[in-house]
Design a protein that fits this description.
It is built from five helices and five strands; from the N terminus they run ααββαβαβαβ. With about 150 residues, the chain is of the alpha/beta class. It has a single domain, classed as Rossmann fold. The longest helix is centred in the last third of the chain and has 18 residues. It is globular.
Length: about 150
């Protein structure tokens, strides 16, 4: 999850616990950290601290490198572009929705206003991404380590 709001990170983590999804949520605070995480560089150089994600939850409005820029870089890289990116942001502006999909986002979700609604969103996301759709095979076939739930 790339989101600069620690409260949103905590709520997402608690929502995942609530639905009992056996997944680990790794959080970064901006697009720059997200790319460092994905490329396992800097603070994330140890692969054990930065396993390849199964899915990326991406906020659009973050400092340094925002979600739009990070999405563009992820989808431009053949070693990363298959990772589904779900935009989870406070915006519901049509321009943001259009730009996110044009940039390669898999889904666009406006952050819910209540914890219960966030739990519902996380439950729906987990059912869809982990039970319904077929994700790319484990590993990316490019030397990166396998996907991690």
């Amino acid at each position: 999850m790339a989101d600069d709001d620690p409260d949103d990170q905590l709520l997402a983590s608690e929502a995942l616990e609530e639905i009992k999804l056996p997944a680990v949520l790794y959080c970064v605070k901006d697009g720059e950290e997200l790319l460092d995480y994905l490329y396992q560089r800097g603070a994330f150089a140890n692969p054990e601290n930065a396993p390849r994600p199964t899915i990326i939850l991406l906020d659009l409005n973050m400092p340094k490198k925002d979600g739009r820029q990070a999405l563009g870089e992820i989808k431009a890289d053949p070693s990363l572009r298959r990772i589904p990116v779900v935009v989870l942001t406070t915006s519901n502006a049509q321009v943001d929705i259009k730009q996110a999909y044009d940039g390669g986002a898999s889904s666009f979700i406006t952050k819910p206003m209540t914890f219960d609604a966030l739990v519902d969103v996380m439950l729906t996301l987990s059912k869809y991404w982990f039970n319904v759709v077929e994700l790319p095979p484990l590993g990316s076939g490019d030397g990166h380590q396998p996907y991690h739930h």
